[in-house]
Write a structure and sequence with these properties.
The chain has helices spanning about 5-35, 50-55. It is mainly alpha-helical.
Length: about 70
């Protein structure tokens, strides 16, 4: 609600969500890399493509292929 939340708070929430989504995408990429180590290309599309592109450009957001992901 724009009457109860100021612009700074909205920006903080948006940045936090983007960071969390980037981590989630990174973990997903790690799962694919672990299952299919020969894949070297990431294709991004859709509304969240900018987040996936950020993950693809920033290797340190992607856990290594042997990283264990618990469910």
């Amino acid at each position: 609600d724009v009457e109860t939340v100021d612009d700074e708070t909205v920006s903080e929430i948006a940045l936090d969500l983007a960071r969390r989504q980037t981590v989630h995408i990174g973990w997903s990429v790690a799962q694919v890399r672990r299952r299919h180590p020969s894949i070297e290309t990431i294709v991004v599309a859709g509304l969240g493509a900018f987040l996936a592109a950020r993950v693809a450009r920033t290797e340190d957001t992607i856990p290594p292929p042997d990283f264990e992901i618990s469910s």
